[in-house]
Amino acid sequence: MNEPILVTRNLGKSFGGIVALDEVDLSIETGKITAIIGPNGAGKTTLFNLITGVYPVSTGEIHFQGKLLGRIPAHKRAHFCIARTFQHIHLFGNMTVLENVMTGQHPRSSYGFLEAALRLLPKARREEEAISLKAMRYLNMVGLGMHASQNALSLPLGQQKLLAIARALATEPQLLLLDEPGAGLNRLEKRELSDLIHRIRELGISVILVEHDMPLVMGLAEWVIVLDSGQKIAEGTAAQVQKDQRVISAYLGEEEVE
Ligand SMILES: Nc1ncnc2c1ncn2[C@@H]1O[C@H](COP(=O)(O)OP(=O)(O)OP(=O)(O)O)[C@@H](O)[C@H]1O
Ligand SMILES: [Mg+2]
User: Fold this and answer.
1) How far apart are CA 142 and CA 151, in angstroms?
2) Alpha carbon nearest to ligand 1 atom 24, residue
3) What is the DSSP code (8-state) at residue 96?
4) Taking ligand 2, which is a single-atom ion, which protein residues have CB atoms under 5 Å away?
5) Terminal Cα distance for the chain, rounded
6) Atom 30 of ligand 1: nearest residue by CA position
């Protein structure tokens, strides 16, 4: 078996008195699609925020490809080949679809994006053309090539979510974190999303998927980890965790509350 791409040990995060994650040990397999599921408030997004360095950990450790992530700040983690999309889409509304993807590549270019955009130097211009060509490839991969010159926010929600994935892919990640990519999508859009995630996996990229849509999880995830109230309560194949009594109780508890 390959070395896991990501390992957490005793990982914890508190916000004041709220324990969002509590001594979580995870091992995420390289090259696989792993789903993290759990009721609202289980700590799923918090886990992504710790992996990407948005928040410092309160306790424990995160190892990426055997290296301790420690206190490396979020803006430097792109170099660690970890990319994400957000539960609530963050696109640049004053940019085109193509420009949004171009910003994804910026961490790897030697010129500042502004400098490149101003086209001050021939080298910057050549580099920008290369970035633009590459961005176009990612747009085509998610099926948005024909919308390249449109304003990003003019796209319907389903396509904005695909655009967010294209931008994350443009950073050339080895690990891609997707936070509820299926939320708000119709059935056809979910099928397209599912196809895309399969194709991303075929590129050799490891995917961690946080998702509430169980059919989507069942069709995609090779391994499922269940969080509830900040703790890992189960893991296994999708079929295994669906039968797990603790998992069933966690979700039933949520229904009673709502
Ligand atoms: N920045 C923050 N400040 C204070 N509390 C927070 C913060 N972020 C998360 N929390 C709390 O941590 C807990 C876990 O939240 P988190 O967003 O990780 O859950 P989730 O599993 O992603 O839920 P959902 O399915 O609703 O997206 C919740 O109680 C939440 O209110
Ligand atoms: Mg969340």
Assistant:
1) 17
2) 40
3) B
4) 44-45, 87
5) 42
6) 41
